[in-house]
Amino acid sequence: MFAKFADLVAYNLFGLEAETRLGESVHFFFYDTTKIIFLLSIMIFFISIIRSYFPPEKTKKLLSNYRKITGHIMASLLGVVTPFCSCSSVPIFIGFVESGIPLGITFSFLITSPIVNEVALVMLYTIFGWQIGTLYLVSGILVGIIGGLVIEALGMEKHVEEYVYQISSEESEIEELEWSDRINFAKGEVKEIVSRVWKYVIIGIGIGAAIHGYAPAELLAEYAGPNNPLSVIAAVIVGIPLYANAVGTIPIVEALMGKGVALGTALSFMMATTALSLPALIILRKVIKPKLITVFVTVVGISIIGVGYMFNFIMSLV
């Protein structure tokens, strides 16, 4: 269905040739745009039904009952089904800390949530298959757990801004929803999320289309392929200053891989742009001090690099 629509637009409406660079780029753009927007709408609806069972207050209550390694595991798992963007990181951080949730467990949630955006995860399963999707899911959860455990072990509580500990908020009552309320919530989430992320999807697909049609495959394969030991590190360094959510980077990852870029290198770039983007770090600076930000970036960055090399190693065995 999506391929036929892209054929119609690129080759019939625009009159482009199928084997030309421009024709391939335009076809890629319209194929991925229709496919991803359709998948987003369907998946957001069903995932939002699940999410309706985990409002922020319930998430805080659940996490406040766990400590040690169990708390980090629970925080990372809840981060999968309760995504947030950089603009919401500060209120979530404050809410968790003032609820008495340990700092390390809070960071396990904050690290995992943007990396393993569950909508993007479904798209990864759809585009790359269940093996890669599952490996990415497990890797994202492990990065969150490891990051939280290291921050906890270092005792970084004093590097949180003092005012955060002084904030006291009233406990909100957890509202019990009827099934019809959950359906309406899911419909609202589809409208709200698609309206918020569509521009990132379009930008990501546009970049992916340009890479697909014009990027020199031989050059990318040489410098970002599995045989270059520094490609993963370079991908993380390049990804940090950028801002994109996981959904917007998937078309770029798809196009890069199509040109010979190693899977681990492409996915480490995706993780870096979502978990360590410069705008997110600037916003987090409102609640944590520079030393904790440095530790956060270092720990998460090293973990992501490790995941990238793991993916490349696994793919070399296939």
Write the topology of this structure.
Layout: H1 2-13, H2 21-51, H3 56-64, H4 68-81, H5 89-98, H6 103-115, H7 118-128, H8 130-153, H9 162-166, H10 179-214, H11 217-224, H12 231-239, H13 246-258, H14 263-275, H15 278-284, H16 290-317
Verbal overview:
The chain has one domain. It is built from 16 helices and no strands. The chain has helices at 2-13, 21-51, 56-64, 68-81, 89-98, 103-115, 118-128, 130-153, 162-166, 179-214, 217-224, 231-239, 246-258, 263-275, 278-284, 290-317. It is globular. The chain crosses the membrane at residues 36-54, 75-97, 135-155, 197-217, 229-253, 265-285, 292-315. Belongs to the UPF0718 family. InterPro entries: DUF318 (IPR005524), UPF0718_permease (IPR053166). This is Permease.
Descriptive tags:
318 residues, mainly alpha, 16 helices
Helix content: over 70%
Element order: H for helix, E for strand: HHHHHHHHHHHHHHHH
Domains counted in the coordinates: how many? 1
User: What is the number of helical segments per DSSP (H or I, 4+ residues)?
Assistant: 16
**Average pLDDT taken over every residue:** 79
Strand content: under 5%
- The number of E-state strands comes to 0
Distance between the termini: 31 Å
Q: Kindly provide the radius of gyration, computed on alpha-carbon positions and rounded to a whole number of angstroms.
A: 20 Å
Instruction: Describe the global form.
Output: globular
Largest sheet: none
Name the poorly predicted regions.
none
Derived structural class:
mainly alpha
Transmembrane segments: 36-54, 75-97, 135-155, 197-217, 229-253, 265-285, 292-315
Subcellular location: Cell membrane
Main location: membrane
Keywords: Cell membrane, Membrane, Transmembrane, Transmembrane helix
